[in-house]
Design goal:
Structural class: alpha/beta
Number of domains: 1
CATH topology: Rossmann fold
Largest sheet: 5 strands, parallel
Number of helices: 5
Order of helices and strands: HEHEEHEHEH
Radius of gyration: 15 Å
Low-confidence stretches: 143-151
Length: 151
């Protein structure tokens, strides 16, 4: 059965302060994760933890190579936000389950029905194929698209 995002889950995850591990967040300003992670931190008010293979610090936040490298004092993770391609996201979802994350958020264009089902079966909330920055206007976290054009 195809995953359908629950609007109540999306709203709760976006409006409840928490800790988001952002997998695929690097200092490359051309990648979608770069600006979206700033939005998650600065507009949504979340703590962010960059996850990237070299464990680079991004936006002044200490990075880690894998979800399993996050120290205990930074656990639990409320949301694992996945900026990896669909073929690789299953491994990230399995890591999220293993560290006791509460939710996984697969970004726009990231789709893996089997991984979503594993996460749901493990008790995690799942959002798939959705970007919080693009969804934010509905929750009044940013101006309504095109509103400036209507004034």
């Amino acid at each position: 059965m195809a995953h359908v995002n629950d609007p109540d889950v999306v709203e709760r995850l976006m409006l409840t302060p928490g800790r988001w591990a952002i997998v695929g967040l690097t200092s490359n300003e051309w990648r979608a994760a770069y600006d979206t992670s700033l939005f998650i931190r600065d507009r949504m008010g979340m703590e962010i933890i960059p996850i990237n293979l070299p464990a680079d610090t991004v936006h002044g936040e200490v990075g880690y190579s894998h979800l399993g490298d996050i120290p205990g004092k930074k656990l639990p993770i409320d949301v694992v936000d996945c900026f990896v391609n669909s073929q690789k996201v299953g491994n990230v979802v399995d890591q999220a389950i293993s560290i006791g994350a509460k939710a996984v958020w697969l970004q726009l264009g990231v789709i893996d029905e089997a991984a979503a089902e594993r996460a749901r079966a493990a008790g995690l909330d799942v959002v798939m194929n959705l970007c919080p920055a693009q969804e934010s206007w509905r929750l009044k976290l940013s101006p309504v698209p095109g509103a400036a054009d209507q004034q």
